[in-house]
Amino acid sequence: xxxxxxxxxxxxxxxxxxxxxxxxxxxxxxxxxxxxxxxxxxxxxxxxxxxxxxxxxxxxxxxxxxxxxxxxxxxxxxxxxxxxxxxxxxxxxxxxxxxxxxxxxxxxxxxxxxxxxxxxxxxxxxxxxxxxxxxxxxxxxxxxxxxxxxxxxxxxxxxxxxxxxxxxxxxxxxxxxxxxxxxxxxxxxxxxxxxxxxxxxxxxxxxxxxxxxxxxxxxxxxxxxxxxxxxxxxxxxxxxxxxxxxxxxxxxxxxxxxxxxxxxxxxxxxxxxxxxxxxxxxxxxxxxxxxxxxxxxxxxxxxxxxxxxxxxxxxxxxxxxxxxxxxxxxxxxxxxxxxxxxxxxxxxxxxxxxxxxxxxxxxxxxxxxxxxxxxxxxxxx
Length: 381
Fold this sequence. Notes:
globular
């Protein structure tokens, strides 16, 4: 895979290593967004079919990305919306404990914590090991060991959002099914950059904000819900999710049934004439690139950085349990985080701080020069 920086419009003098915060827009996504905005000048250009057709194309493309049927995909405005939808439709008679990992992203934590309070369930946090040696392996083993017949649901991210720890989703999904536990994942920090298969991993719900690794605009996302959610209750009762929505002249012939599959979970006004074309253009580009190629590119690109970190007293997760597009590293005791961040800012290097970790996140727009500048700055500090 070759560098794809020419497809973006990032300033030449910055080193943007912060895709986990927000992706830059592709030129193609920006252009189609402008075209879609201009289209609204004249409403006669927007036909009733346009409320639905673009959405169906996007659902189909997302299905190709995560290996699911288009009808099991819903269009959502935010990860919190999709996570709350799944949590609100959990059965309450299949276990008394919900599992999360430590420092889970707040949107997932708040949703499952409220569900536990409302339904008198216990919330168990599987903490990251205190030791840094074989940390990822030990954390995965602790998660698997915690799943039992009393487990109602496991809610976690596909990778840890602060440091990129990889979780063995196939084994966790298998263990969940063995004990009739529901498996809910927040894929916001990996889907679009890391291969994932909802069937192979036996995932019940996969929720993704669109503005990070799916390379789309803000305020739109995508969610997969397995068939176990097909009879659930949506967060809102919008007309566009009913079975007769495409018959504009008969909308007041009220019906009880919804669109098939996960159609009931679409956000109201999901046929957004500006955001949908942008999101779809982004997903189509990812499908063309292929997520395995993105991982391979980032792996090769970051090898000099990983070597430098390990040789100079920084901690970074072992290769087997570290995402290649996103990972955190801990500073040696002698280095001040404040001093480092000041130096990074001076050199126009953009990363994030999450917990105690410096969170690094790369993509196809990053170059060897970006990595060299980061290494040089770390060396200066």
